[in-house]
Design goal:
351 residues, TIM Barrel, eight-stranded parallel β-sheet
Length: 351
Amino acid sequence: MQHRNLGHTGMIVSPLCLGAMMFGKWGEPDHDTSIGIIHRALDEGINFIDTADIYSRGESETIVGKALAGGKRDDVILATKFHGPMDIEMGESGGDPNHRGNSRRWIIKEVEESLTRLQTDWIDLYQVHRPDPGTDDDETISALTDLQTQGKIRAFGSSTFPAHRIVEGQWISEKRGLGRFVTEQPPYSLLVRGVEADVLPVAEQYHMGVIPWSPLAGGWLSGKVRKGDGQPETNRSKRRPEMFDMSKPENARKLDAVEELALLADDAGMSLIHLAIAFVMQHPAVTAPIIGPRTMEHLESQLGAADVTLSSDILDRIDEIVPPGVNLSTGDAGYQPDALQEPFLRRRRTA
């Protein structure tokens, strides 16, 4: 694989990043099977792995740690994330409010937990999984800088941050003489192009590495979602059926676009999967899309995308199907600020 610079960190990574979200309870529960997928990816030239503490409540990190034991760790750029609650299952309410978030208190505790699960002394890229409206970015960046100074992390980045928060983070780092976010991990796909309007240009301006998540749009671009087939029977659709509820107008729009994109891929002599991943990879701001296979078949179907280059004609046709800078569903943005979720923050109260 043709390697790429991870921003200006000096770290060199493969053009595909192996995402480990589906290893463990959320996807493939058998550890040996998941480890086999990781080893296969490494054998094919992938040297970049991304996980998070919240994935199956630490089980994903445990699997990755097992897979890299025995001498493989030194050859891998290893990334993980913190922010989500670790004392409750995904979707549950309650739990200890201090066992989550972006505070110094939680960061200092949780990095040790991740290091233990990953069986390593250092994390190459430690990422803030989502913004935290209750914590000043100064607090977060200061704590991450201390971890960097201590050698527990080599670099740190953000994930699914809006453009203004990225700029604010850079300003804080410069103002206070702290380390800075050197990467951003946004949602980006043929169906989710909102980040093209601001996040990607801002990341490029600050020489940040960009590692987009869900280039297959949560399975919509896997080739298994087609008109007339009904709701797909996939692991993700079982966990989150609302994502594939075709009665929703936004999902109907996505389904129409998928049909046109599938025809475009057929005409170009490639799979829809390769078209989707190559599209993300070809943006000048992007370092490496994150592929998240659950099975060996998934991995094999995605690896070849690293060798695909899309012509200008194909890219122009994609723009006709899904206009640049547009998310066909607002729910695919990955993060909604409180100002949108809480009505009282955007409306004056009346009697």
